[in-house]
Amino acid sequence: MYISDFNYHKPKSVKEAINLLAKSENGAAIAGGTDILVEIKKGLRNNTDIISLSGINELKTLNEDENFFYIGAGLTHSEIIASEILKKNLSAFQDALTKIGSEQIRNRGTIGGNLCTGASCCDSAPILMAVNAQVEICNADKTRKIPLRDFFLHSHQTALKKGEIITKIIVPKTVAGVGAHYEKFGLREATSISVVSAAVMVKIKDNICVDACIVIGAVAPTPLISISSTKILIGKNISELSENSPVLEQIGIATSNDSLPIDDIRGSAQYRRDILKVITQRAVIKAVISAKNKL
């Protein structure tokens, strides 16, 4: 199928891009185009204007201060994976990005684009939600910041309004005793869409898990914080979080109960629940190991 006709724009600044989006009746912003162009070719969307963000340098910055990393939404997955700045503090996020698509997709697709799809199987969202990341959103009048956990409204629906784009992802720097890990299950080793995923953040002090967050993906309309399993994890001694322990079993069951999976071509709802129990437990164990290594 051929791509439908549209007006193509390539602005040089965020302001110019926002103005184009605001004025267009049916415009869409693209960065790498790895999702939108495929959807256009399949006839799933018909946009009158396509506004490319690929020429906007201010979306491709990576900065830090004492407390946060500021990751430009236009950075590709490969650029983030290669960043030496992030390796000491956000290696779990980098590892999660290595599980996206293929090398060609990672070289082209951007972190902002991955989030803006609003897909529940988005690989970057669970780990970013687990570490309490925010997104910076700009329109013609103002800039606002919202927690990523509030960005996803429903399947393929986000908090972005007409004329808005994500400009940055703001990620807190981890402190001593904080570890995180992302686990994904797909139907093949590469170029796979998540059937189930789980991200875990833990903070350990005096061998006690004093804070935690468990986020599950591809098992609900949006990436979802599993409140029940997070409550079980907080307050536990790390000696109770070894493989096959009763506490880990409880955590696995709790995430399964919090999930809202569907039956589709990649797996049944029950299959997803069963896999979720296993990969959540794996993610907890590896997050605890990561936290211990940072004490």
What does this structure look like?
This protein has helices at residues 14-23, 36-41, 77-81, 84-87, 91-97, 103-108, 111-116, 124-130, 227-233, 246-258, 269-293; strands at 7-9, 27-30, 49-52, 62-64, 68-72, 134-138, 143-147, 152-154, 157-158, 165-172, 178-185, 196-205, 208-217, 224-225. It has 295 residues and is of the alpha+beta class. It has 3 domains: 7-52, Uridine Diphospho-n-acetylenolpyruvylglucosamine Reductase, domain 2 (2-Layer Sandwich); 57-172, Uridine Diphospho-n-acetylenolpyruvylglucosamine Reductase, domain 3, CATH 3.30.465.10; 178-293, CO dehydrogenase flavoprotein, C-terminal domain (Enolase-like, domain 1). Strands 4-5-10-6-7 form a 5-stranded antiparallel sheet. Strands 11-12-13-14 form a 4-stranded antiparallel sheet. A 3-stranded parallel sheet has the order 1-3-2, covered by helices on one side. Helix 9 (227-233) runs antiparallel to helix 10 (246-258) and helix 10 packs across helix 11 (269-293).
Task: Round the Cα radius of gyration to an integer and report it.
Answer: 19 Å
Number of strands: 14
Oligomer: single chain
Shape: globular
**Architecture (CATH level 2) name of the largest domain:** 2-Layer Sandwich
Report how far apart the termini are: 55 Å
Class from helix and strand fractions: alpha+beta
Helix run count: 11
pLDDT < 50 runs, ≥5 residues? none
Question: Regarding CATH, which class of the largest domain?
Answer: Alpha Beta
Count of domain modules: 3
Q: Which topology of the largest domain does CATH recognise?
A: Uridine Diphospho-n-acetylenolpyruvylglucosamine Reductase, domain 3
